[in-house]
Amino acid sequence: MSDHADLIFTGGRVHTVNPTNDVVPAIAVGGGCVMATGSDDDVRALAGPATRVVELKGRSLLPGFIDAHAHLAGLGMAEIAIDCKAPGMQSIAALQRAVRDRAAAQPAGTWIRGRGYDQSRLAERRHPNRLDWDAVAPDHPVIFIRTCGHIASVNSRAMAAAGITDETPDPSGGRYDRADGRNLGVAYETAQMPLQTAAMPSWQDFRDALVRSSRACLAAGCTSVHDAGGLVGPAFGPCQELMTSGEIDLRIYAFTTVNSFKHPLLGLLSSGVRTGLGNERLKLGAFKVMTDGSSSGPTAATREPYTSNCQDCGILYFEQEELDELLGRAHRLGFQCTVHAVGDRAIEQTLNAMARAQRESPREGLRHRIEHCGICPADLQARVHGQRIVPIVQPAFFWEFGDGYIANYGQARADTMFPAKSLLARGVPVAGSSDAPVTRQAPLLGIEQALTRATSDGQVCGPDERVDLTAAIRMHTINGAFASFEERDKGSLEPGKLADLVVLGEDLARVPPREIRQVPVAMTVSGGRVVHERG
Fold first, then answer.
1. Cα–Cα distance, 78 to 87 (Å, whole number)
2. Which residues contact 320 (CB under 8 A, 6 or more apart)?
């Protein structure tokens, strides 16, 4: 390594996120790693003839954000789908007009996709169904994914492509909406899997989607992503190619995700590979099991009925013995295990399964995770801490879905959702994430919402669970690195660590909490290389 820095940043507020959370004026980067942090004079002494010096002028510089739960292929595909969150799209009639326009522009038989509708915010207050889509696109298969990703709405052509008829029974862990004996083409949880398979993008579509999502993440200041499902499988080949060619600059920790004992990726358990295979750019991550529904559907599995429907406690994919068997097998084979568990009933079932796996096959250095860890009251928080579980939460959800949480689960349960402050106070390394494309791939929105927990309608979910800025930054940096066993390499700006960093357009400490999402990302650096620069 040269004695001179490649990049120097001075005159700012460099959040090192080291054990003492030091904030210093300057940082030097060389050979892809952090060389030094400290005073302007000390760092400037490392400049050479070819060093680029960036004057921060009081702005914040942080470690590159780590999104500990997102879906890269889905994020890239969502960018070319009909955007149901766009202005003027909050009705089925508006969505139908958009589908009619796509049908006129696309060859018959090609898929029309939409992403991000929320039936609770549509004028009609219901899911669109096959009759709505058939009326405007009878010659194209249509698939719209609800914002949570757990519910699909399709037309008759899409159902035919997936082999689904009116007589198709509800699968374990899923169901279809029906009326007068007819399948309406609204599929929940596992019931949507045949539809997702039928609508599988092509190899080139995957490549293009991954390039788009990589660029979006880097532009948001995110240098690492834990891909929580959708990459290991058909998209993994394109991802490897893009890594090799240098077209993707993200670091990716990719999960293997299954939702049944028939899932094709179960074969990975007997292949001999395990968590950690790969390198600092692309690495095989946790073995993930889906066990309940979505927080906003709502289809989360709860211990008590929903406040909005006393007959509903959500959807649970597995019985306890089944989950014990599946997680126990992955645990014994050396995988990091994680479970999608949103409702308190699902979290309790997950903790039971993980405790049994460890009891029967003790392992050192466990970092088993719970993805979402949504409705998590004090008794479950104590178990998360006692079992050394790493919860992966989505603070950004409060803005878009918080009003629905209060309506569907009641204020008391909504106040216990994603309880970051209580868990952190117990010493639990809570990691932050977006779950994009469920919500925006914007770590600054996640940081804002960790501070405010404010809904779009002005309510607050759990004011006592709001954290301070330092904690919110750590959730989106070093704690994400810990969740993937990579805290020695990244997540903080300390000498010898990877030079992954983000320069913001303002001093974050001076920005009102409710305006943090608006702070621009001026520059993103990965491995000492500038991979995004604003204007």
1. 16
2. 349, 352, 353
